[in-house]
Amino acid sequence: RSSTPTEVDAVVVGAGFSGLYLLWKLRKHGYTAVALDKGKEVGGTWHWNRYPGARCDVDSHDYSFGFDEGLEQEWEWSERYPSQPELQAYLAHVADRFDLRRDIRLETTVTEAHFDDDTKKWTVRTDAGDTYVAKFCLMAVGCLSVPKDVDVPGLENYTGPIYRTSSWPEEGVDFSGLRVAAIGTGSSGVQAIPEIAKQAGQLTVLQRTANFVIPARNHKLDPAYVADIKANYRERRLLSRSMPAGCIRDDNPKTAFEVSDDERRAEFEKRWEGGGIAFLGAYSDLMVDQKANDAVSDFIRSKIDEIVTDPDTADSLKPYGYPMGAKRPVVGTDWYETFNRDNVELVDLRKKELDGFTEKGMRLADGTDYEFDAIVLATGFDAFTGAFSTMDIRGRQGRSLNEAWSEGPKTHLGLGTAGFPNMFIIANVGSPSVLANMVTAIEQHVEWTVDTMDYMRDQDLETIEATAEAQEAWVETVEEIANMTLWPQGESGSWYRGANIEGKPQIFMPYAGGIVLYEETWNEVREAGFKGFVLQP
Ligand code: NA7
């Protein structure tokens, strides 16, 4: 590899869903681009999180690209919810089908991206020693791509193998007959633990905060159902784009207490049987009215009592202290059922204090010792800003992004940030991203980014940059909208507001207004001549 800088129109950081779509679109619009990714294969999130049971909780046909009808018709999703291997295969297929790989550099970590005030260009450097110079720096880095630092007391003493769900060994792990500890009961833990339990000799699950877990009811897809979707795919995509969640959900317009207790229970039952995140659409006020939220929370707690045979364990698995949804609700398979297995023990860290990990296992404050042959960490991510903070990003006058965001990330519409011209951020902080179908959120941003680049090319413009005022206002809007919901409530410590990381500035990061309102806002900004952005020749 040479150190002579390679000139392109755009450097794309990341080759997951966002990076791949960007590459496709940029090429189609006549731009030269290169995508740089740390992974050995494309796929981003779906490359790294290859732990057993890893699966998306948005329907396969919606969690996929809508930009090419040939791709849509050709690709066969086999299950209601796509598994990690299937998603990884899909994204690899996209890279091959559109010959994107010639512009992708894998196993390449971006170490720095610096804006030059004179040339108005970005210089991007990698750990491979390569340098790229580009007018645009496009951050397709994902919201959950940097794991949270390990903060489990004494874990450094433990000498056995430790596996993280977020960077699972490619060859897999054989837990047959082993004594395993699993820490973390968010989406990753809830998906991995039932699978590991099937293999392990003994599995000890350490739970700090109980989560609301809704059954996925994943299943193989019926060919007639698939044929029907494919026959009407355009309508489905348009409909998805017209729904706040960015995918089709049968949301009930009624509020929880305008119906009788019996009717409400029946509706919850019906949706529990149907499974998946559509459960949240049972009533329109579940996420805005505490009483409605209590009703759905009570329902889930009653289900835990029904499923889990040991009353103490059932009690420990019940979430309290925050509204359902304030922590991302989890969609899982056999989560509660797993605790009826003889080889699974739940250690409720709210009831039993952990003294710390030891060379061979762990010790509880009451003196109980455990020995483990392996430990699994599903302890979460430094969400949204994590990937940015690992790079040395400098904008005008050499100002660092970490410094600019020291009080929390600030963006205008999630797309750009003041002082960092021509740096676009794809579906991350300040956008519907994780609160909607991520792929729909990505499509919005990729389209707007490339449209803006086209506009700049047509108008002979050199830079676009968010204003400081606009981004202050947007941060406020994002916070205000979040405050209209129950999302920020309770002791949930959610990564939505950086609360899972000690010392991280706490602001609500994703935009809770949904895909449609967000698109309307962008359209207004665009029609008002990119209001809140400064464009310069
Ligand atoms: P999450 O949702 O952040 O979950 C992390 C889990 O790990 C959660 O249960 C945490 O408990 C637990 N945790 C973290 N640190 C510790 C320590 N030190 N001790 C005990 N338990 C700990 O991450 P996921 O990877 O599961 O999911 C992230 C997103 O990916 C998910 O929401 C989907 O969007 C896909 P806590 O709640 O902090 O008490």
Automatic annotation (TrEMBL):
A molecular function (GO) term: oxidoreductase activity
Pfam entry (one): Pyr_redox_3
E.C. number: 1.14.13.-
Gene3D superfamilies linked to this entry: FAD/NAD(P)-binding domain (3.50.50.60)
Cofactor field: FAD
Keyword Endoplasmic reticulum annotated: no
Alphabetical UniProt keywords: FAD, Flavoprotein, Monooxygenase, NADP, Oxidoreductase
Tagged with keyword NADP: yes
InterPro entries: FAD-binding_Monooxygenases (IPR050775), FAD/NAD-bd_sf (IPR036188)
Family designation: Belongs to the FAD-binding monooxygenase family.
Protein's UniProt name: NAD(P)/FAD-dependent oxidoreductase
Organism whose genome encodes this protein: Rhodococcus chondri
